[in-house]
Amino acid sequence: MSYRFVLTFLFCAYLQVAAQEIKQPKLIVGIVVDQMKYDYLTRFYQDFGDDGFKRLMRGGLNCKNVHYTYKPTYTGPGHATIFTGTSPSVHGIVGNNWYDRNTRKSVYCVEIEGDFAPAFSPKRLLVETFADGLKQFSNFQSKSYGISLKDRGAILPAGHLADGAYWFDGEKGKWVSDVFYPNFNASWLSEFNALDFSELYLVKGWTLSKSINDYTESIPDLNNYEYPLTSKSKTVFPYNLVKAKKDSDWGILKKVPQGNQMSTDLFKVLVEKEAIGKGKHTDFVSLSFSATDYVGHRFGVQSVEVQDTYVKLDETIADLLTFLDLQVGEGEYTVFLTSDHGAGMPRSYLQEKGIPSGELNQREMKRKLIEIANDEGLAEAWIEQVMNLNVYFNDSLKNAEYENYQRLKLKCLNWLTQQEGIAKVVDCEKTSAANDQREQMTLRGFHPQRSGDLILIEEANWSTYTDKGSTHGSPYEYDTHVPLLFYGFGISKGEDVSAYPVSSIVPSLSLLFGFQTNQGWQLTPIQKLFKQ
Question: 485 Cβ partners below 8 Å, 6+ apart?
Answer without folding.
Answer: 53, 56, 57, 60, 61, 62, 63, 335, 336, 337, 338
